[in-house]
Design goal:
CATH superfamily of the largest domain: Dehydroquinate synthase-like - alpha domain
Radius of gyration: 20 Å
Low-confidence stretches: none
Largest sheet: 6 strands, parallel
CATH topology of the largest domain: Dehydroquinate synthase-like, alpha domain
Number of domains: 2
Number of helices: 15
Helix content: 40-55%
Strand content: 5-15%
Mean pLDDT: 96
Strand order of the largest sheet: 1-9-6-4-2-3
Order of helices and strands: EHEHHEHEHEEEEEHHHHHHHHHH
Structural class: alpha/beta
Number of strands: 9
CATH class of the largest domain: Mainly Alpha
């Protein structure tokens, strides 16, 4: 655990708990009179959405709904939404759904607040000022986007998904209602939870930089820090305690609550601390195989831990002791190995494959994917053990050679 330096960037307000979605109308009314809701086709047709629209209307608000958000968030959909509702001129934008819906709200708010093209803002700290207030309401528990300064999209001119990272993109309010995850399918629950665990683990084990006063002003991801450590370890405890139960019984509201709280805490942690190699590698793997982000990250995370052990043994040992798979008398080496084993066991229990062969990765693509992963600079630089193309290739090779369901 680090105690000498910490950074936290967070929403103005987080409302957490069953039924909290009923607060949306009053929250939105505090921020303006015209509300744009960004969601997807499935959620737009639910009774929950009908109740939300009624709540907003009951506050005297004008409401528009964009219900065509797509998974992996293609650029064309963002531009379509922004163009369609520019004349509506929303005062507040609600992201309601999975991570793509939350990121849609962030990026539409950006385009309605500042001149495009959106590519102007790819990277870190390029958003020039505040955007229109965003209210984020997740219906899955994984991305943590309700609490982060990051939005990720698919640009057809780029080989991989790209990110825009700026504190201006942090939602004004996050409303985290685990009731909204009760209908989340078993497989999506598993891969979303794996993504949340990867956020917390990679943040906790990130490179530790000197706590220079300029650090948080120059980097969105500052690396390992005291506030990220506390939030990240709390997240890991919650996810280890509740994720398997939520996957096994989707109606277990206590488990659903534990997983959603874990995902939000992980978002708060990595929103300043950042992620690392598993996320950098997932971008080219996902682009090559068109597989879900959380699934790729879940497969890759244990292999990146193996690679990082020489540099992050103490961090992994702290996690092992925090989740109770090692004790204070165990050496760091023993404890770190126990954590790696516990993570693999959890992922096997919830159905995360052990090898990227399960995604359809072809051996002849590994060199190209290793090179592409190195272009995710903010993630590469955040890894506790230095990375180069050969190191990325070695991780991919290990992930390829492991039996798919080891």
């Amino acid at each position: 655990m680090r105690l000498d330096y910490g950074v936290l960037r967070a929403p103005t307000r987080i409302l957490f708990g069953s039924g909290q979605r009923a607060a949306l109308g009053r929250v939105a009314a505090e921020l303006g009179r015209r509300v744009l809701v960004c969601t997807d086709t499935r959620f737009a047709a639910t009774p929950e959405m009908a109740a939300i629209r009624e709540d907003l209307a009951g506050q005297g608000l004008q409401v528009a709904v964009f219900d065509r958000t797509e998974a992996e968030l293609p650029l064309a959909g963002i531009l379509e939404c922004a163009a369609q509702y520019r004349s509506f001129n929303p005062d507040v934008i609600v992201g309601l759904g999975g991570g793509s819906c939350l990121d849609m709200a962030k990026l539409v708010s950006l385009l309605l607040s500042h001149e495009g093209p959106l590519s102007t803002y790819y990277g870190e700290f390029k958003v020039p000022g505040p955007v229109r207030p965003i209210i984020a309401i997740p219906t899955t528990a994984g991305t943590g986007s309700e609490a982060t300064p990051v939005a990720v999209l698919g640009d057809p001119e780029r080989a991989m998904k790209v990110g825009i990272s700026s504190p201006h993109l942090i939602p004004h309010t996050a409303i985290c209602d685990p009731d909204l995850t009760l209908t989340c399918p078993r497989g999506l629950t598993a891969i979303s939870g794996a993504d949340a665990l990867a956020h917390a683990v990679e943040c906790f084990a990130a490179v530790a930089r000197p706590g220079d006063p300029e650090l948080a002003l120059n980097r969105v991801f500052v690396g390992k820090n005291a506030l990220g450590d506390e939030l990240g370890l709390s997240s890991i405890r919650l996810l280890f305690a509740h994720l398997a139960r939520a996957v096994e019984d989707g109606q277990d509201i206590a488990a659903r609550s534990g997983v959603m709280l874990g995902a939000t805490l992980a978002g708060l942690a990595f929103g300043s601390g950042g992620t690392a190699a598993a996320h950098a590698l997932q971008y080219p793997v996902g682009a090559e195989t068109h597989s879900a982000h959380g699934l790729g990250v879940g497969i890759l995370l244990p292999h990146t831990i193996d690679y990082n052990l020489p540099a992050a043994e103490a961090a992994y040992a702290d996690i092992a002791r925090g989740i109770g798979v090692a004790g204070p008398a165990d050496s760091d080496a023993t404890a770190a190995a126990a954590f790696a084993a516990a993570l693999r066991a959890l992922f096997a229990q919830i159905g995360i494959p052990a090898s990227i062969t399960a995604l359809g990765v072809a051996p002849e693509t590994l060199d190209q994917m290793a090179a592409l992963a190195m272009s995710a600079t903010r993630l590469v630089e955040n890894n506790p053990r230095p990375l180069d193309t050969a190191a990325m290739r070695s991780i991919l090779t290990a992930a390829m050679e492991t039996p798919a369901h080891a």
